[in-house]
Amino acid sequence: MNKVAIITDSTVSIPDETLQELNINLVHQILIWGDQSYLDLIDIQPEAFYKRLSENKTNPTTSQATVPDFKQVYSRLIDEGYDVLNILLSHKLSGTIQSATQAREYFPGANIEIFDSLATSLAMGWQVLAAARAAKDGAGMKDCLAVAEKARANSGVVFVVDTLEFLHRGGRIGGAARFLGTALNLKPVLELVDGKIEAIERVPTQRKALNRMIEVVKERIADRTPVKIGILNANVPEKGHHLEAQCKQLFQPDEMIFSPVSPVIGTHAGPGTLGIAYMAGM
Question: What's 83's DSSP letter?
């Protein structure tokens, strides 16, 4: 039985040291700004991205990781004797899975599986970590896929955006579209459901929206243990750390990750976004 290597994409929000420790391979999404293209988290980092976003009148766009990028990683891992499991961002948010699938056609004899996380950021990240830890413990492809499926069923993300402008502009607004045109001071609480953005409710202030977000996560977790919590912030680290402290006290997670929102996700979510990605019961 071959060892299994995990590939995911740069929206995953897992710290670099953990990626290296678990041999998790990244393909990078693409940020396009004017006539320049940047590899997400290689050519442009969150701090520089949000600074430029606040100063630049031109808005960036994004593009999926390319077929050649996947081919390059596949080739290396296959040469090293691995079976390959891709755990990638939702097909309802990106064409990344399409690139991975097209690249697989160049390796007809290889065992390459493509798994739709139906998520992004750390909601996908918990799935990636679960599968990568299983692979490190010697699990084969079938068992790694089973772990990923269980993690997908037990994870999610709830988030609050400062404005719906960025989701609307990027075409990722999904079920939150019904909140467009409402009063600017109303803050939407949103959730990824079955791979797309859905609206939970509008709340009068950000403070109340964040409290409601915590309540929703508590409802989703219910009485399941253990709990893993990821805190996501788009250029608002102080608010993120306050949220982190609240979640640590309330959920007493056995693992917690604090992560900036990558430039590609930030292009669509916008600055000021805060989120909680959770996994419970495994």
Answer: E
Could you tell me the residue range of the domain that residue 193 belongs to?
A: 155-280
CATH code, domain with 18: 3.40.50.10170
CA distance 236 to 218: 23
Segment 17-44, tens digit of pLDDT: 999 999 999 999 999 999 999 999 999 9
What residues pair up with 256 in beta bridges, in sequence order?
229
* 237 and 220 belong to one structural domain: yes
Do 224 and 252 have their domain in common?
A: yes
- Cβ-based neighbours of 210, under 8 Å, separated by 6 or more: 160, 239, 243, 274
What pairing do the DSSP bridges indicate for beta strands 36-39 and 24-27? Answer: unpaired
Residue 159 sits in the same domain as residue 143: no
| CB neighbours of residue 230 within 10 Å | 27
On whether both 238 and 181 belong to a single domain, the answer is yes
**What tens digit of pLDDT does each residue of 189-228 get?**
999 999 988 888 888 888 999 999 999 999 999 999 999 9
Q: How far apart (Å, rounded) are the C-alpha atoms in residues 135 and 62?
A: 31
Whether residue 96 is contained in a domain is answered as yes
Which residues is 82 bridged to in the sheet?
A: 3
What values do phi and psi take at 274, rounded to 5?
-130, 140
Specify whether 251 is located in the same domain as 217. Answer: yes
- Write the pLDDT tens digit of every residue in 80-111: 999 999 999 999 999 999 999 999 999 999 99
Token couple for 62: 């994004």
